[in-house]
Amino acid sequence: MNSKLQAAVDEIVDQFTVDKDFLCNATDHFLESMDSGLQHHTPKREFMPMIPTYVTAIPTGKEKGLFLAADLGGTNFRVCSINLKGDHTFTLEQAKARIPDELMKDSTAEDLFAHLAKKVKQFLEEFHQELNVSEDKLKLGFTFSFPVDQSALNRGKLIRWTKGFDLPDCVDKDVVILFQNELDKLGVKVHIAALANDTVGTLLSRAYSNNPAVTNSNTVVGAIFGTGTNGAYFEKLDKIPKLKKEQITEGTTGMVINTEWGSFDNTLKVLPKSKFDEKLDLETANVGYHLFEKRISGMFLGELLRIILIDLFDQGLIFQDLYKSRGGSLPHRLAEPWQLSSEVLSYLQIDDSTSLKMSGLILENELRLPTNEEERLVIQKITQTVSTRAARLSAIPLAAIVKRVSEQYEDDDKDFEFGCDGSVVEFYPDFQAKILEAIAIINPLKGSNKKIHLKIAKDGSGVGAALCASVAK
Ligand code: GLC
User: Fold this and answer.
1) Buried b vs exposed e over 213-236: b needs ≥16 C-beta within 10 Å?
2) Which are the contacts of 18, defined by CB distance < 8 A and separation ≥ 6?
3) Which GO terms of the molecular function aspect are on file (predicted)?
């Protein structure tokens, strides 16, 4: 590699390195930020929302019955029916469809929810004809994976959109009412009994499937590392000062909290800040928010790589011959934002073919980008750098929550496990191993023999929403 290019790449690698001191400081800062969020009712940019969910218990695995779940959270909308068998198992039918781009922005809440209601209707017609004749309304758990100010198990106003959605008239409105209205208009016999974030769903569904007698572990976190990232955990009531007495029913000892950790450190007190992160933020619909998520999750990894490559190009270090041969332009899939998916990065990351020929084919196919070997080496190095930082940063909230909840489990000698879902944690090469490695460095259980396990809770959010609906009155 020529020495100028090498120096530029080394500098980027340096800026993206997350070392032990950083991890430990950031974990402490995360713990402080959790406390601030639990104190203040009105969400502010400075701290994580830490949203009380009105889910007051973790499932035991004995819950039973047929429930519907509808899941809106990223690129797809999913409707499922879940039959909880009461023995840690369930059966599930589901239909999934992409949300049309035109309903994600420049549209209205009514159009979006009318579309979702139609999908629920179609699902029931296809899978549950028998319910048409019944008088009872089926309970539906609505997984809505955006920050919501929840005021009851099935009430919550949208705080702001994330992950590319932008329908301004929906902000501050109760999304359950909007959805229920559209279901009623279509005469669909369904009652939205619970509103759940996907992380809450993942926590509940993993806790339902987990049999501690077999795994010797308690499920303490539900986490998503997919298009976005976030986590939920069970907090004791005396640690949630912002909850008022009248909001709590008698006998409640604690509540599941949706942290919205994507918004950890929006003011960048500790998070790494490179000019690339800054540029990426400016390209998003929620500038200045969810800055942790923008360093970690699937929606952003490809864009970070692209921004870095364009910067190296602007310095005259890569793609120069290509630029000339095209008469002064770069392929549009490289020149335009958001064209590079994290799935592509996962292939580039582990290519070990001679001269990285495999990467060459992938880049041609996905970006229409011809490359030479030196460019491919740079692309692979930057891909690994961006994704390693993401995985190591992902350890911070997990380690912090383990630290925080360990006193809840003082009299219990079981291990701790996280239920995780999302394309990045499930499929990105070595992502899980790197998270666990960084957690071991932070060592949140210092002085105890308990271990930490990471479990994939596939499709957790649907089952979890059904579990939420199952406890609703
Ligand atoms: C975003 C949303 C959050 C969700 C996460 C994972 O961070 O704000 O509610 O849980 O993505 O889907």
Assistant:
1) eeeebbbbbbbbbbbbbbbbbbbe
2) 272, 388, 389, 392, 393, 438
3) ATP binding; D-glucose binding; fructokinase activity; glucokinase activity
For residue 208, what are its two tokens?
């339902």
Q: What is the reported pLDDT for 132?
A: 65
pLDDT single digits (tens) 106-157: 899 999 999 999 999 999 999 988 776 566 788 999 999 999 999 999 999 9
Q: Give the catalytic positions in this structure.
A: 145, 160, 198
Q: Which helix (H) or strand (E) holds 79?
A: strand 76-85
What is the DSSP annotation of 81-97? Answer: EEEEESSS-EEEEEEEE
Is the beta carbon of 201 within 6 A of some atom in ligand 1?
no
Kindly report the pTM of this predicted structure: 0.93
Please state, in angstroms and rounded to a whole number, the distance separating the CA atoms of residues 452 and 208.
18
pLDDT score of 302: 97
Selection from 217, 274, 202, 210 nearest residue 425 by Cα: 202
CA-based nearest residue to 322, from 367, 280, 352, 355? 367
The SS3 of residue 235 is strand
Distance, in Å, from the CA atom of 119 to the CA atom of 113, rounded to the nearest integer, reads: 10
Burial class (CB in 10 A: 0-12, 13-18, 19+), 387: buried
Question: Radius of gyration (Cα) for the chain, nearest Å?
Answer: 23
Q: What is the DSSP string of 172-231?
A: TSBHHHHHHHHHHHTT--EEEEEEE-HHHHHHHHHHHH--HHHH-EEEEEEEEESSSEEE
Q: Which atom of ligand 1 is nearest to the CA of 144?
A: 9
- Going by C-alpha positions, the residue among 303, 317, 301 that lies closest to residue 375 is 317
Please work out whether the CB of residue 73 comes within 6 Å of at least one atom of ligand 1. yes
